[in-house]
């Protein structure tokens, strides 16, 4: 398994591509710049099988429709935010962007935590609300990575002052779900560099004293 970060969109939000030896791949959070992402995929000969969304804020969804239509693949999102894709007040674009972002409905609404199989990829799905109600994290054991969206960052945590945000819930999600992962797990966040579970347990000031 191989992962790569591709910053996209108005906030340079981290999209990720996880690929296997057969050149199949899963795309996480394509936030904008659809042609940049499509060009990257085509140049590497990758075959997308799905788009997985950690949550539905505008900077994580801007290129969803273009990429979905280009490859004829399904979009996955937690059911708590299924209405956010087409609602610019919920996804935040009405307040933060000059242009409102409206995306077509997702194809799959995630409900249950646990094993999630997408094509030949298998993840452990964690519901990690707090930054937003439907925030989820995708853990891939073989690759030793967790795609945490905007829940956990290197040295920080997600903001909780947006609609549906809850700081106590976010800290609980991080401690109960993410920090239970093996310490060597690489955390791939929605913004900034990668980190590890161990590094955040040791040094993240927001996680101490909870």
TrEMBL record:
CDD domains in alphabetical order: metallo-hydrolase-like_MBL-fold (cd06262)
Claim: Hydrolase is one of the keywords in the record: yes
SUPFAM superfamilies on file: Metallo-hydrolase/oxidoreductase (SSF56281)
Required cofactor names: Zn(2+)
Extent of the signal sequence: none
All residue ranges annotated as the Metallo-beta-lactamase domain in the record: 12-191
The keyword Zinc is annotated on this UniProt entry: yes
Gene3D superfamilies in the record: Ribonuclease Z/Hydroxyacylglutathione hydrolase-like (3.60.15.10)
Domain of life: Bacteria
InterPro entries in the cross-refs: MBL_Glyoxalase_II, Metallo-B-lactamas, RibonucZ/Hydroxyglut_hydro
Keywords: Hydrolase, Metal-binding, Zinc
Name listed for the protein in its UniProt record: MBL fold metallo-hydrolase
Organism: Litchfieldia luteola
């Amino acid at each position: 398994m191989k992962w790569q970060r591709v910053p996209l969109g108005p906030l340079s939000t981290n999209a990720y591509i996880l690929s296997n030896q057969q050149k199949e791949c899963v795309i996480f959070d394509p936030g904008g710049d659809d042609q940049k992402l499509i060009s990257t995929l085509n140049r590497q000969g990758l075959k997308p099988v799905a788009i997985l969304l950690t949550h539905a804020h505008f900077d994580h969804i801007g290129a969803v429709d273009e990429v979905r239509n280009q490859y004829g693949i399904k979009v996955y999102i937690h059911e708590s935010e299924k209405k956010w894709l087409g609602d610019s007040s919920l996804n935040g674009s009405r307040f933060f962007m000059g242009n409102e972002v409206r995306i077509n409905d997702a194809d799959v609404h995630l409900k249950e935590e646990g094993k999630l199989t997408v094509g030949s990829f298998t993840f452990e799905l964690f519901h990690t609300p707090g930054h937003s109600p439907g925030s989820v994290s995708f853990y891939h054991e073989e690759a030793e990575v967790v795609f945490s969206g905007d829940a956990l960052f290197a040295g920080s945590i997600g903001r909780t002052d947006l609609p549906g945000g809850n700081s106590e819930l976010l800290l609980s999600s991080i401690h109960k779900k993410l920090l239970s992962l093996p310490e060597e797990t690489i955390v791939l966040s929605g913004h900034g560099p990668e980190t590890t579970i161990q590094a955040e347990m040791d040094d993240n000031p927001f996680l101490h004293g909870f």
